[in-house]
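Re: the request from the purification team.
They wanted to know what the chain is likely to look like in 3D before they choose a buffer screen. I agreed to run a prediction and write the result into the notebook, where they can find it.
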Amino acid sequence: MRSLEKSATITRLEVRPLVWSLVIMLYLSALIPQTGLALTLLGFVSFQALKDFYTMMPLRRSERSLVFLGYLCIPLQLLLVNSQYYAAALAFIPLLIFGMVAWLLACYESTAQAFNSTLKLGWGLFTLVFGFSHAGLLLVRDSTLPLSIVELTNVVSGGNLLLYLVLLVHAQTIMQAILLRLRVNDWSRPVFHASLTGLAGVLSILGVGILAWGVGPWLIELTPWQAMVSGLLIGSGAYLGTNTVRAIQQALEINETERHQAGLGGILYYVYPFTYAAPLFFYFVNLFV
């Protein structure tokens, strides 16, 4: 028993430097002025998360070519993002998944096997490549406009938008971790005949909304109400991303000690919140800012 605990501890120490390096890369991608280098850093984060996701999945030998296709989609998607063609960047992965489904149905004799492969491979591709690439779309948002328009209208830079997103996502993660450490979810007191399970997540989302109220007008020139709404959206997306990783772990019967081991979801807890929060914030910015 002691040997197992020792090996798990060593594995956590091995994973932690990589996790923190990915977090640093997220901040650097928002601060570096060179868009190409920033997108390269985002691509490396996406690659590591997708690798962690595929390692978790029980894959068949026949699915290895699709795994390679998933890795290949990362630079292709970021090239489309860097080319500033929103339509191509937003349509590439969904159309590819549609084609993947048709190909799998033609190759597999069993429809259940085809859908099983689609759910395993397509979901990772859709979230960790397509969803996460919206962070890159935020980064290049101001580059799609002529310089004269940017100067006249004071358009917020893409780096500020990405930095705002990263700060709020990590704020939600930290707040929820602190509330869970305080055992907020363990309160058994009923409220309107319902338990308080999930209260830590709700309070962390509200906390992010309040934080955005103060940070948003200063960092990305939103009105206080716009900033609060964006904070609630980002906090909700981050919360859904964390719960998605937990749901995958439960489906694969991965316990809480294993989640820190290499290849068993340790990195996903830090990347998956962006796969929901980045698209929500991207569409909010394009609709209301």
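For the purification team: The first helix runs from residue 2 to 31.
Please add any questions underneath this entry.
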